Amino acid sequence: MTNASKTFLEGLFAYRGALQAFFYRRLRTKADSADLVQEVYLRMLRISDPEAIRNPEAYLFTVAANLVKENAVADRRHAQEVAVEAAEATPALTLVPGFEAAVDTPLRVARLSKVLEELPLRCSTAVILQYRDGLSHQDIAAQMEVSPRMVKRYLAQAMSHCRRRMARLR
Amino acid sequence: MIPSDDQIRAAIAEQASDWFMENRNGLLDHKESARFMAWLQASPMHVEEYLRIAALAPDLETAAKTNKTPRDTLLARARGEPNGIVSIDRASFGQVPALVRRRRSPVSSLAAAATLAVVAVTTVWSMRDGERFGLPRTYSTVRGEQRTQRLPDGSVLHLNTDSAVTVRYSRTERLAILDRGQALFEVTHQDKRRLRVQTDRAGVIAVGTQFDVYRKPGTTTVTVVEGSIEVYRGGTPPPAGGEPSVRLDIGDQLDVGDRIGVRRHVDAHAAVAWLHRQIAFQEEPLGEVAAEFNRYGPVTVEIKDESLRALPISGIVDAYDTDSFATYLATLQGVIVQRTPTQIRVLTRESLEPPATAR
Q1: What is the ipTM of this complex?
Q2: Which CATH class is domain B277-352?
């Protein structure tokens, strides 16, 4: 692989805000993360010719991002209706910090650093070599003296562990 | 969330991580992308886990960058870590048989290969410990401690506060003796030997299920969280023609003391609330709830008044959160709560008032 490292998260950044809005902020309207996930899933199911989609991940992220936008628009409409009735200006398009937003980014990152320390050293080392040092799986494998498959295994375990530990924050 | 749900989530999160890494390696080829799409369409949980992993990744990058340890130091430490202890803990709960992928993509074969490696290492590890050869091994917790342990056959043992289980494997059965306290067993299907849990009063026989056994003085309470089990009275399985065992299904609970009690249907989630350090109770006498609470923290609840002990209450409390529990008790009508460093005394309002001033 030609230095896949530098580009590891490239392509994700365009969707970063939308993805995080999904889980770390509560949208103003009734929809919460669970409803949104259901809706994304339904839209993924409705694809008439799944084979035709070249990049399912980009498609998934786009569906998710659109949904966040639609909700924001619905929010604004809702806010305007309220504003008329209550004769009170409400800032449009704001994502109101909710339950989950109590844990904002710096706190989340601090917490995640702690969670990384709970991992077996092989797992956390693989994560740091990939994300901090920008090494490819092959390079990490060579440095750790294990197979690239094992490196992927460590990384998958690390991500799965972090995801679950962070979920318990709520 | 019940434990099985947690396990399934863990397995899906690992699959999601695998796919996430595949996607980071560049555009998937036609075949792979069809497989990935099929995986996404298979379940809303797949979609959710994938989105969550993707939302987590940028934070993970930021977190990794806060680590200042030099690479050589990290590598030296990682190499020094005992071989193969990659996943004896919850991190490895991913290998749930039901979740084997239908189509074997390179991703899954790779995961399977790694799983095999982990299993092999775990086997070596446990053989060294002798459990496979029938040597008993005891797992225990002290008061206020909880612990999760993966057993050599792949089953998972959750120990509640102040509990002990001795495990002994033979050719024909996996025997777990609950020496004291409470344990939740998640029994794997993969091992065909029956798993038997034994207390002083009762025994449970199971293959591939989840159930909770709580050994109290004189009584053992068994609750089925998933699947079904057979329960018998006494210290050994009944001989043919002896007292029949009772079959319990999901959500069933049974007390076994001098006699086998009457099967009742309960909220299985509530029965294993302790996994989340919680005590859940529904219309249960305050005295019993207090006794439950007293199993955990250093502060105990004392209730002398009989009528108060019989008062039915409902709720969910954190088993270790003394303050909340005291606050909750103080909201009960006619109740006064006194705090000392080691005790919460619960009294009726009348008992505090001198007789002369009584209404």
Answers
A1: 0.81
A2: alpha beta
